[in-house]
Design a protein that fits this description.
The protein is elongated and about 60 Å long. The chain folds into two domains: 51 residues, Arc Repressor Mutant, subunit A, CATH 1.10.10; 124 residues, Orthogonal Bundle (Tetracycline Repressor, domain 2). The chain has 188 residues and is mainly α. The chain contains nine helices and no strands. It starts with a helix and ends in a 6-residue tail after the last helix. Helix 1 crosses helix 2, helix 2 packs across helix 3 and helix 5 packs antiparallel against helix 7. One of its GO terms (molecular function) is DNA-binding transcription factor activity. Keywords: DNA-binding, Transcription, Transcription regulation. This is AcrR family transcriptional regulator. It comes from Phytomonospora endophytica.
């Protein structure tokens, strides 16, 4: 019975470490594990007990961030919500995660099998949502979904890295989808 609270404590300390690492490393990518521990409010030994080394911490940060991206898309209910609603909500959710976890996502280990598996799930969710949007007439019937995905990802990335709307996910999501659907040509 005592193990359950310890597990919750362990989960809280891991989350505190990951959150602190994101903040600290965003400001100083060469920050030490000791600086991360201090920011997390835990002992350096706690960080080392949870993460064997800096690479393990970075790998865990990337995996954590990609899992949040997956949850953000799933929360938009892309398979059951109206396609445009799901696209907007998923985009806003993903922008919020990307804004909070930029360092971790930018530095995620592309060779880590767990992270790659989650990234593949994210891509499948996105591709299914795009196919549903195409089938609903939101995208042209002959839209190249692979190209659409690349442009969408670029728009999201630029929205996060070049924010001028103080990070309001709904405003940025509207801009991303408006650009994706209409570009900059005149509206007819």
């Amino acid at each position: 019975m005592a193990a359950k609270p310890l597990r919750a404590d362990a989960e809280r300390s891991v989350r505190a470490i990951l959150d602190a690492a994101q903040r600290v490393l965003s400001e100083n990518p060469t920050a030490s594990m000791e600086q991360i521990a201090e920011a997390a409010g835990v002992a350096r030994t706690t960080v080392h007990r949870r993460f064997a080394n800096r690479e393990a911490l970075l790998r865990a940060m990337g995996l954590w961030a990609w899992q949040r991206i997956k949850e953000a898309i799933e929360a938009a209910r892309p398979m059951t919500a109206p396609p445009m609603v799901a696209l907007h909500q998923a985009t806003a959710n993903v922008l919020a995660v990307k804004d909070s976890w930029t360092f971790a996502l930018d530095n995620a280990d592309a060779t880590d099998p767990e992270t790659e598996a989650v990234r593949a799930e994210v891509a499948a969710l996105r591709d299914n949502a795009f196919a549903g949007a195409r089938d609903a007439g939101i995208f042209a019937p002959d839209a190249d979904l692979a190209w659409l995905a690349r442009v969408y990802i670029a728009l999201i990335s630029e929205s996060v890295h070049g924010q001028d709307e103080a990070g309001d996910p709904d405003v940025l999501a509207t801009r991303v989808l408006d650009t994706l659907l209409h570009g900059f040509g005149p509206r007819t």
